[in-house]
Amino acid sequence: MKYILKSIQTSASILVEYEHGLLRMLEFEDTTMIQVSWFMKHCPAEEANLIAFCKAVKFRMSNTQTDLSFLAFWNAFAHKVDKKKQVEKLWSALTDVEKQAVFACIPSYHRFVKIMNQNSAYPGTWLRNRMWENEYVVK
Q1: What is the pLDDT of residue 38?
Q2: To which H or E segment does residue 2 belong?
Q3: Structurally, how many domains does the chain consist of?
Q4: Average pLDDT taken over every residue of the chain
Q5: Does 41 share its domain with 89?
Q6: What percentage of the chain exceeds 70 in pLDDT?
């Protein structure tokens, strides 16, 4: 199972993969060498300990999308009005961590747009402006 961990205190994101309950892979984004070193020492080797770890060190954890293809993004994004080939180029320039963050954000973005009665951005605009990094909270 893959998870994306986002630090509440910094912009650090870590893609963590467990296989058969054991740590298999780590991928870091927006992290310093000090943060990487710290995480390597403290990351739980067993998947069962991940939730407690995230609570203790103030990381937000979300399950990840297993299919990171452009088609999966295109199908998940409700507003399919744009030049598809150009959007595909933007998608292919993203890292796997960024793609995971996109998939994690799409549902809350769509809820926000619907509740706030706003027009949805074109997929290319959404990717180009890194709109998945925004918080979509309705108060």
Answers
A1: 93
A2: strand 2-7
A3: 2
A4: 88
A5: no
A6: 97
Q: According to the model, what pLDDT value does residue 72 have?
A: 92
Q: What stretches of the chain show up as alpha helix (H) in DSSP?
A: 33-42, 50-57, 70-76, 84-92, 96-115, 123-128
Strands 13-19 and 2-7: antiparallel
Q: Which of 38, 63, 88 is the C-terminal boundary of a domain?
A: 63
pTM comes to: 0.60
19 is in which domain, residue-wise? 2-63
CA distance 34 to 47: 23
Longest pairwise C-alpha distance within the chain: 46
Among candidate residues 63, 95, 116, the one where a domain is terminated: 63
Amino acid at 72: A
Averaged pLDDT, 80-98: 91
